[in-house]
Design goal:
Shape: elongated
Largest sheet: 8 strands, antiparallel
Strand content: 25-35%
CATH architecture of the largest domain: Alpha/alpha barrel
Number of strands: 36
Number of helices: 16
Distance between the termini: 30 Å
Helix content: 25-40%
CATH topology of the largest domain: Glycosyltransferase
Length: 667
């Protein structure tokens, strides 16, 4: 157990609790009660954490760990930590020097802005008490908190409930407990967050401790529930007391979690969040909200592959109503700001996701209201029509049937790192994966209105096959007509070309060319955790995504590995090698197993956002990323599905593609 093993408990409303398995909070986002007022946006940290101590006749022992400047750990409860488990939620066992054993668990009930913390004595011993001091801030989740005179420590005590109202205009913080509360206000200064330091960000915080909770642990288990205003009614319902209420929620939550088909299905649930009467997908924890591009990519795995079609409908139909000038928003910022239309591919991914939702619904006899179906078809038409006619950021179909896009200062593709006014990989012109998505959107639109869109699809497909092929390297150009200059090409070897062979409903290449693309990507870009974003042979390649903001953004798409790309790659690999039981078994071993192992490396039970391009491929970015997990689930489903009349291996193509490297750890 290390500080890199992180746990997550999501409430389904955009808030969450998170921390490390070993105890210390290493991020500004690690918190016991982090709530959202506006779906996944408007998040605030109400309760950052707590210190817990057990007093026995033999002495006082810590259950918690805190890191302070200048690198001091005190207390260090990890010294007594004997085990940690994630099922059915985070649970720690502590073995104290005098033989006393204590269990601690933390869980967040689904649909409730509350976090339950419980402690239980595992050895029958007299005279054992527990003390806990909560640390409060009530701040924006991106910010850090510092000692100030405006913070109000005053506590309102009513039966089993203590309430603090630290700042005007901010939510109240409630604690429901079977403890005795003593008011002892203190500032705890200079908490140090190691992960913030590593990311080159401000890393030190002061937190307010209003008092201490005390339990006789020999006599009863200790219960402490931190809650938002909206959770109080349910938590105080009835007269049974908070111990019984917490037990009831634990039983209900354990039953709910046990009903999932697999741990992957349960992990997928963390990203599906209520947004008013609708649903959305959180792009990643702890700092992302909902993004259009991420939502539609992740939806295919998180919803369609897991059979959650009602959730898919609840996501897609509201997005269909948000189209403006042929585009869906790519991001809804915090604090109610206007949505951002800064992605050329988000709308096209919407078309693909909608098409696959409708196809899955038909295959599984899932009923879709005629009004919803009409809305989704109209959205597809509006996007394709808007792109063909022309819309924001010089997005417009060219005479060759391909889609041009981009202007200086705007990051339109998924390779969207930007520092100030500097767009690291601008990719202005005709990016290869945008064409694959555009031609797939035309293919889908042509299935609805063939006379209108089939000729355009035919013209565009022919142009793609002619203009993107790079015979010298045996792969596809990453961008043609760079900066809208006819004939100018970018020959960088990047993973975007894989979408011409796999990952989308319509493959644009087959035969020898498809095999050469897959072989090129495999040779230059494949790692155990996904595909690199740039070949190591390129002068612009960055082996690690680390350091401050500028250094990380410079490396973000210049060699950094992205796990979400593995889904498209393996689909393409199967197409050119033949989807037989033997090749599928090979894919499970070489491509799926390393990602499965990674589920226990950083964000426990989940997949990271990115990893270093060079071995050992250290995980970076968000520990819990929606499209990484979504594509892993989709790929797992593809590789485990029974084959009906499987095709024979395409031996000639495989020979042309070259043999796959024997190791995936470096290249």
């Amino acid at each position: 157990m290390t500080p890199h093993h992180e746990w997550l408990e999501a409430d389904g409303l955009g808030g969450f609790a998170s921390g490390t398995a070993s105890g210390p909070r290493t991020r500004r986002y690690h918190a016991l009660l982090l709530t959202s007022e506006l779906g996944p946006t408007g998040r605030r940290v109400l309760v950052n954490g707590l210190d817990a101590f057990v007093d026995t006749p033999a002495g006082t022992f810590a259950l918690s760990s805190q890191n302070y400047q200048p690198g001091v750990t005190t207390p260090d409860g990890a010294e007594c930590l004997s085990s940690f488990a994630m099922e059915p939620w985070p649970r720690w066992e502590f073995a104290l020097p005098d033989g006393t054993r204590v269990a601690q668990e933390i869980f967040v009930p689904k649909g409730l802005r509350a976090t339950v913390v419980r402690w239980r004595l595992l050895t029958a011993k007299p005279g054992v008490t527990l003390r806990a001091r909560p640390f409060l801030s009530n701040r924006d989740y991106h910010a850090l908190h510092h000692e100030n005179g405006a913070f109000r420590f005053d506590a309102e005590i009513l039966g089993e409930q203590a309430t603090w109202r630290p700042y005007n205009g901010a939510p109240a913080i409630h604690a429901l407990t079977n403890a005795r509360y003593t008011h002892e206000p203190h500032w705890y200064r200079n908490f140090l967050y190691a992960e913030e330091s590593a990311r080159g960000l401000d890393d030190t915080e002061d937190l307010a401790n209003p008092g201490v909770f005390l339990w006789n642990l020999t006599a009863q288990e200790a219960v402490l529930v931190f809650a938002h205003d909206s959770a109080l009614a349910e938590l105080r319902n009835g007269s049974q007391g908070i111990v019984v209420t917490a037990a009831t929620h634990a039983q209900r939550e354990e039953k709910r979690r046990a009903a999932f088909q697999s741990p992957l299905h349960r992990a997928a649930d963390a990203y599906l969040v209520a947004k008013g009467a609708a649903q959305t997908i959180v792009a990643g924890y702890p700092w992302f909200t909902d993004w259009g591009r991420d939502t539609f990519i992740a939806l295919r795995g998180l919803c369609l592959a897991t059979g959650r079609l009602a959730d898919a409908r609840g996501i897609l139909v509201p997005w269909a109503g948000a189209i403006s000038e042929g585009m869906v928003p790519n991001r809804f910022p915090d604090h109610g700001a206007q949505p951002e239309f800064n992605a050329v591919d988000a709308s096209l991914w919407f078309v693909v996701a909608t098409h696959e939702f409708l196809a899955t619904a038909e295959r599984t006899n899932f009923l879709i209201a005629s009004a919803d179906r009409k809305s989704l078809h109209a959205a597809i038409e509006a996007i394709v029509e808007g792109y063909a006619r022309g819309t924001r950021h010089r997005i417009k179909m060219d005479a060759d049937g391909l889609l041009a896009a981009g202007e200086p200062g705007v990051q339109l593709t998924w390779m969207d790192a930007k520092v100030g006014d500097w767009v690291v990989t601008p990719r202005i012109g005709k990016p290869v994966e945008v064409q694959a998505l555009w031609l797939n959107a035309l293919h889908i639109a042509a299935s609805l209105e063939p006379e209108k869109w089939q000729p355009t699809l035919t013209r565009g497909t022919a142009s793609f096959r002619t203009r993107f092929w790079n015979e010298e390297l045996g792969c596809l150009y990453d961008v043609i007509d760079v900066d809208h200059e006819a004939g100018r090409v970018d020959a960088s070897i990047r993973p975007n070309q894989i979408f011409a062979v796999g990952g989308l409903p319509l493959a644009l290449l087959d035969g020898v060319r498809a095999a050469r693309v897959v072989a090129c990507v495999e040779r230059h870009l494949l790692t155990p955790l996904g595909l690199r974003t740039l070949s190591p042979d390129d002068a612009a390649y960055r082996p690690r995504c680390e350091g401050g903001v500028i250094a990380r953004d410079e490396a973000y798409h210049q060699g950094t590995v992205w796990p979400w790309l593995i889904g498209a790659f393996v689909e393409a690999w199967l197409k050119v090698h033949g989807s037989t039981e033997a090749t599928r078994a090979e894919a499970r071993v070489h491509f799926l197993a390393p990602l499965h192992d990674h589920l226990q490396v950083t964000g426990l039970g989940h997949l990271s956002e990115i990893a270093d391009g060079t071995a050992p491929h250290t995980a970076r970015g968000c520990p819990w990323q929606a499209w990484s997990l979504g594509e892993f689930i989709r790929l797992t489903t593809i590789l485990s599905a029974p084959q009906k009349n499987p095709p024979a291996p395409r031996a000639k193509i495989r020979a042309r593609a070259g043999k796959r490297p024997s190791t995936l750890t470096s290249s």
